[in-house]
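Today's session is about reading a structure prediction critically. Students often jump straight to the picture, but the first step is always the sequence itself: look for stretches that repeat, for charged clusters, for runs of hydrophobic residues. Only then move on to the predicted structure, which in these notes is written as discrete structure tokens rather than atom positions. Here is the chain we will use throughout the hour.
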Amino acid sequence: MNHVLLSIGLVVVLALLAATAAAVLTRLDGATCPTALMRVAATFAAVLTLAIALTGVLAQVLS
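Below is the predicted structure for this chain, in token form.
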């Protein structure tokens, strides 16, 4: 059970790091704050969706 919680925490931290990088790059590009927040949300959701998809594939392969 501890490995599952650690993995979930790691995925969330990586998603937050990717979202932060997207925000910084968007702001450096000269976009407004609402635009940066939209890209942050899209990046965060994309990373979590990718993690869920990979988990599903690995579950099918390993079982």
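Discussion point for the tutorial: The mean pLDDT is 94.
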